[in-house]
Amino acid sequence: MRRTVRFLLNDRQFSLEGFDPTLTLLDWLRNERRLIGTKEGCAEGDCGACTVLVGRLRQDGTGKTELRYEAINACIRFVATLDACHIVTVEHLKKASGGLHPVQQAMVELHGSQCGFCTPGIVMSLTALWLGAAEAPSRERIEEALAGNLCRCTGYGPIISALDRAYEIEASSADSLNVGRAEIARKLAGLADQDIIEISEGGRKLFAPATADQLAELTAAHPDATLVAGATDVGLWITKMLMRPATVITLGRVGELDRIEDKGDHLVIGALVSLSDARAALGALDPQIDELIRRFGSEQVRNAGTVGGNVANGSPIGDSPPVLIALGASVTLRRGGERRTVPLEQFFIAYKKQDRQPGDFVEALIVPKPKPGTLFHVSKISKRFDEDISAVCAAFRLERDGAGLTTNAVLAFGGMAATPKRAAAAEAALAGRSFNAEAAEAAALALASDFKPLDDWRASARYRSTVAANLIRRFQAETATGSVHRVAGILRSDAHA
């Protein structure tokens, strides 16, 4: 047992003990270290003003260890989750000579800042792209990286152009974080160990196991503990709801859960795999899945949030469950040395209630690959196109026989009920029929007996019902014409979807 959290902050090493288990990185940086370039805007991971870089040792696809930096939101990240990491704030970007980093210099030259409040976070998001990229990314890629950084006064034109200008000033390979990467990696390797970390203050505790067996022991000993992966939801419990969990177990050091295995006809995705890392594997199954994950919060959220956490959280408006249910995924639960596998559609029992016994934790997701000839469709309906929670999320999978008759239909929805749920009546309306306009209309009308959605501030019940039915009609129209736009299944908020 170790009672300290050890990490690098910019060019210094720290070892902290005896602090609030849910102390956020933002509060520690500003209040304890007086690094006030990192701002607090929303305190819920939306605005990006608190963006910093976190470097971690990771294994690439070949098993080789590499140091990778990612942009994250400091406002909802717990300090205790950053053991053996390198935290980089905007103050550390300056050159050894004291001059501005090329990204900063380009922002100045192109007038990419006005009030300046959001500027440090924007600079850190652009720097995350800058690191390791030999050439300037495409405009689309830059816009994607900036989707989690809100700026009210400048407009994004000069900000986007700034990264191109930065490459004209200096190649990214000359960045100090790239030049010194080997030494940083050596230091981080020296901080890593297999000890369980325990942080306690005022009767509250946080445990950070290093192995899956340690995690199983801790969850068995503390069945009421709050399990935290990326804290993209739990972080809001702390900053917005002012909750103070008595016991927290963080999963970030358990490398065994941070793996994707391709088993030929299915994928095994560890519970700790981030949404950013899962995107390539799941997106390869269908381009619409790739686009859905691209719109899953901001890049900062995707870098921290995990697939396992999104499932275990059990939200009825989580974006991944409908897709995973449509693919026929199962969830592997572990308690102690025992494991059981549950079809994901059966895992969700009621609002925020899942088929988990005390001491259970999500270990992995088993995701079958669609069979050749399978029809697949994904739609996300939200008020904002980027970085918004779904009003309705839908994923459809249709399998047919040689005569073109439907042998298996899975229509999964989020936002339509208290849990992510299949539309059983609508599926039955398609069974044994050609997937034509008449069949789609029957399925669309059958949704009325599948769901009685709620009215809330995201959408009215009537709106949700209308959109859900129209998505089935659209799926059939795209299939009939063969003109499916591979990302057009992701829709802006539109009652005529």
Automatic annotation (TrEMBL):
<dbReference type="InterPro" id="IPR002346">
    <property type="entry name" value="Mopterin_DH_FAD-bd"/>
</dbReference>
<feature type="domain" description="2Fe-2S ferredoxin-type">
    <location>
        <begin position="3"/>
        <end position="93"/>
    </location>
</feature>
<dbReference type="Pfam" id="PF00941">
    <property type="entry name" value="FAD_binding_5"/>
</dbReference>
<dbReference type="InterPro" id="IPR012175">
    <property type="entry name" value="Xanth_DH_ssu_bac"/>
</dbReference>
<keyword id="KW-0274">FAD</keyword>
<keyword id="KW-0285">Flavoprotein</keyword>
<dbReference type="Pfam" id="PF00111">
    <property type="entry name" value="Fer2"/>
</dbReference>
<dbReference type="InterPro" id="IPR002888">
    <property type="entry name" value="2Fe-2S-bd"/>
</dbReference>
<dbReference type="GO" id="GO:0004854">
    <property type="term" value="F:xanthine dehydrogenase activity"/>
</dbReference>
<keyword id="KW-0479">Metal-binding</keyword>
<dbReference type="InterPro" id="IPR001041">
    <property type="entry name" value="2Fe-2S_ferredoxin-type"/>
</dbReference>
<dbReference type="InterPro" id="IPR005107">
    <property type="entry name" value="CO_DH_flav_C"/>
</dbReference>
<dbReference type="InterPro" id="IPR016166">
    <property type="entry name" value="FAD-bd_PCMH"/>
</dbReference>
<dbReference type="InterPro" id="IPR012675">
    <property type="entry name" value="Beta-grasp_dom_sf"/>
</dbReference>
<dbReference type="InterPro" id="IPR036884">
    <property type="entry name" value="2Fe-2S-bd_dom_sf"/>
</dbReference>
<dbReference type="InterPro" id="IPR016208">
    <property type="entry name" value="Ald_Oxase/xanthine_DH-like"/>
</dbReference>
<feature type="domain" description="FAD-binding PCMH-type">
    <location>
        <begin position="199"/>
        <end position="372"/>
    </location>
</feature>
<keyword id="KW-0408">Iron</keyword>
<dbReference type="Pfam" id="PF03450">
    <property type="entry name" value="CO_deh_flav_C"/>
</dbReference>
<keyword id="KW-0560">Oxidoreductase</keyword>
<dbReference type="InterPro" id="IPR036683">
    <property type="entry name" value="CO_DH_flav_C_dom_sf"/>
</dbReference>
<dbReference type="InterPro" id="IPR036318">
    <property type="entry name" value="FAD-bd_PCMH-like_sf"/>
</dbReference>
<dbReference type="InterPro" id="IPR016167">
    <property type="entry name" value="FAD-bd_PCMH_sub1"/>
</dbReference>
<dbReference type="Pfam" id="PF01799">
    <property type="entry name" value="Fer2_2"/>
</dbReference>
<protein>
    <submittedName>
        <fullName>Xanthine dehydrogenase small subunit</fullName>
        <ecNumber>1.17.1.4</ecNumber>
    </submittedName>
</protein>
<dbReference type="InterPro" id="IPR006058">
    <property type="entry name" value="2Fe2S_fd_BS"/>
</dbReference>
<dbReference type="InterPro" id="IPR016169">
    <property type="entry name" value="FAD-bd_PCMH_sub2"/>
</dbReference>
<dbReference type="InterPro" id="IPR036010">
    <property type="entry name" value="2Fe-2S_ferredoxin-like_sf"/>
</dbReference>
<dbReference type="InterPro" id="IPR014307">
    <property type="entry name" value="Xanthine_DH_ssu"/>
</dbReference>
